[in-house]
Every structure is written in C-alpha cells, then in structure tokens.
Amino acid sequence: MGLFKRILGICETRPPADAGCWSFADGKIEITLARAAELAQPGGAIRLEGRSLPRRVLVFHGDDGRYHALPNRCTHVGHRRLDVLPGQGKIRCCSIGQSEFDYAGGRLAGSAKTSIVPLAVEVDGERLIVALAPREGDGPIFAANTPVGEATSSAPRKSGQSPTDAGNRGRDS
Fold first, then answer.
1. What stretches of the chain show up as alpha helix (H) in DSSP?
2. Dihedral in degrees, nearest 10, Cα atoms 108, 113, 116, 117
3. What phi, psi does 172 have (nearest 5°)?
4. Dist CA 122 CA 158 (whole Å)
5. Both ends of the chain: CA-CA distance in Å?
6. Would 93 disulfide with which of 35, 39, 58, 99, CB 3.0-4.6 Å?
7. How many C-beta atoms lie closer than 10 Å to residue 112's C-beta?
8. 134: Cβ–Cβ under 8 A, 6 or more apart, which residues?
9. Where residue 26 sits, what CATH number does that domain have?
10. Smallest Cα–Cα separation from 58: which of 40, 79, 84?
11. Is residue 41 part of a domain?
C-alpha cells in the first residue's frame, strides 16, 4: 500500500462485489459463501459496514484455511480499518503506523498498544455466521493490555473445549 493511501487511511479491502451476499439480524451477520466470491480462496477478505451494523467488520479466509472475523478498527489512536496480508498469516492497519495483528487479533507490531478480540465465526453449510458480540468470556471487543502472542483463537468453542480443538474450518474440510 502506498504512503498516500496510508496517510489518508484508505484500505485495500473492499466491500463485497455482491452486496446481497450478506445480511444482519439479531446480532449476527450471515454471509452466503457462494455469493461472496472474495472469500472463496485463502487470503480473500471483505469489509462489511452500514446496514445497521453497530461496528465495521472484517471477514476473511485465512491462509490457514479457516474463516475469521474481527472488528474492522485498529486499536491505535486513529482507529483505521484493517487489511489482510495474503501469504503472511497476519493483518495490518492501513495507517502510517502499520500495526500488525495475527488472525486471532493478537498485536504483533506497530503503534497499537492492545490486541483486538476476534468475533465468533461458524461455518454452517454454505453460510458463514459471524456473531457481533465477542465470544463468551472474551471481555470487551478491544482487549486491554493483552501481551503480544497471547491473544485467543478465533475459532468458536463449546463449553470445555480448548481453542486448539475448536472446529472452524473452511468449506473444503
């Protein structure tokens, strides 16, 4: 991304080409994967905003083959949007500071002082369901003073299930 875009906070991630691929109701975003071409391959991402969403959301198909969702707002002072860095396993703020986060929202580098708490994602057939409330027990959307590398997994968990056991795999799993 060029310096001019970073100064203005212009991100590379676009809204979905098919605006009808998603809906929002009852605190959940539902995405029809067959209509969200941007999410078909690892590294693909869409930004969702408007339509009564209480916050912007970044949804992406990670290089790990899983779907992830984060509030699309960096935790540094400017609160710029985020972009996926395909092939690098991380996301980056589209500002001058270029804060970087792992897929689970853990702060890796840059001017951001805190991590971002991921949103729960569930694959239900050809639908992707994103709960806007943080997962139970995760606390606020922006984790205060989360040490680098200690962010939680973005996979939804059942009671008693560890983050590494959680099943949030892509369509081909």
1. 3-8
2. 110
3. -85, 0
4. 12
5. 33
6. 99
7. 23
8. 117, 118, 119, 120, 140, 141
9. 2.102.10.10
10. 84
11. yes
Query: Cα–Cα distance between 116 and 113 in angstroms, integer?
Result: 10
Q: Which domain holds residue 80?
A: 3-147
Nearest to 83 by CA among 98, 63, 67: 98
Return averaged pLDDT per consecutive 10 residues of the chain, 173 residues in all: 61 90 95 97 94 91 95 75 89 77 91 89 96 60 37 37 37 34
Give the Cβ contact number of residue 68 at 10 Å.
25
Best CA proximity match to 170, nearest among 84, 61, 83, 30 = 61
Contact 114, 143 (CB under 8 A): yes
Residue 61 counted as domain residue: yes
For the segment 101-130, what is each residue's pLDDT rounded down to a tens digit?
Answer: 999 999 999 888 899 989 999 999 999 999
> What does pTM read for this prediction?
0.74
Q: Is residue 158 part of a domain?
A: no
* Residue 157 placed within a domain: no
